[in-house]
Amino acid sequence: MEGDGEYNDGHRAFVQAFMARGTMTLQEAKPVLASILTVQEGEPVDAVQITQEIFDSYLSAAQEALSRLDYDIKNTMHQVTKKRVWAIVNTTSDAMTQLATVHSAEEIAFVKRVLDAMFDKYNSPRLEAMFLDSMQYHKCCRAPAAAPAAEAMDDEGEENQPQQSQQLRGLKSSEAEAMMQSMVNQGWFERSAKGFFSLSPRALMELRSWLTDTYNDPDAEPGEWQRIKFCEACKDIVTVGQRCAERDCNVRLHDHCEEAFWRTKREKKCPKCATPWDGKHFVGERAVTETEAYRRSKGHRGSRAGRSSGLMEQIMAPDEEEEEEEEQEEQEQLEDE
Ligand SMILES: [Zn+2]
Ligand SMILES: [Zn+2]
């Protein structure tokens, strides 16, 4: 096979370590590559000697080897730590399909409801949170009677089986907790210091087109508000970052992208609608934690989990109009039962 002369045990060991983790930063790669090189060179190599260049050479060897197995290596900047993250992504099946191979239909339907909450319910022009606290994901336990989640995912041309989807009962609290933990352990979700759940960089890379297909309106007019939005600078999805102060404008920027972006601009104004960019309109946790209501309550009541959960819901709760629609839907579902 071509390339075999260069592809050696060291590369193989690196691919194995990478696959076991799913993602890697330079910092995480350093000790791994140091041990590999120590064996190969027969003398101690220290982690501090591992440069981005060495890492890159192993990444490109791994990429070539993995491409034969329908995997690719992609990278993105972590929106919070601002460290570059490399991930092994499947090029033939999306993350939801992959999850379905190791989780039950109930668990997958729960994850779909969690994603709906992140990207639909708690992601509106008024407030783009795109994360959930534990009270909010517990609300996703119960399967709706008609189980639209199962239908929405089933677009592979297989017939929907209403009987089967009606049997979905949802997850118990403890099962939902275990599933969320499992999603964190597998690298799909991340749990922040404040205990909020959001999609990991790996999930954002793997689910990029799935999220767009699922939550954006393909028939929207150009410039119309969409749920999934991309950074004006790097074009990756923004779930944590800054937004245009104009409520219906789609322009978003990552915190780690803004400096270089504004350096090339004459004025700090939205490139689409020319609204002055104040850097104080946020996407993600800060959309909630920077609100007056959140700060006031933290000052007065401390951060007791139960109370802050109720508060989160108060701040993040969809607009009244949206809520009415939902109540109506629930009512209809009850009548169907
Ligand atoms: Zn960006
Ligand atoms: Zn704008």
From TrEMBL:
As for subcellular location, the record says: Nucleus
Indicate the segments forming the Non-structural maintenance of chromosomes element 1 RING C4HC3-type domain, all copies.
231-273
Q: What class of enzyme is it?
A: transferase
- Chemical reaction(s) catalysed: S-ubiquitinyl-[E2 ubiquitin-conjugating enzyme]-L-cysteine + [acceptor protein]-L-lysine = [E2 ubiquitin-conjugating enzyme]-L-cysteine + N(6)-ubiquitinyl-[acceptor protein]-L-lysine
Reply yes or no: does the keyword DNA repair apply. yes
The record, for CDD domains, names:
RING-CH-C4HC3_NSE1 (cd16493)
Q: What does this protein do?
A: Acts in a DNA repair pathway for removal of UV-induced DNA damage that is distinct from classical nucleotide excision repair and in repair of ionizing radiation damage. Functions in homologous recombination repair of DNA double strand breaks and in recovery of stalled replication forks.
The name this protein carries in UniProt is Non-structural maintenance of chromosomes element 1 homolog
User: What's the source species for this entry?
Assistant: Apiospora aurea
Q: Recite the lineage of the species.
A: Eukaryota, Fungi, Dikarya, Ascomycota, Pezizomycotina
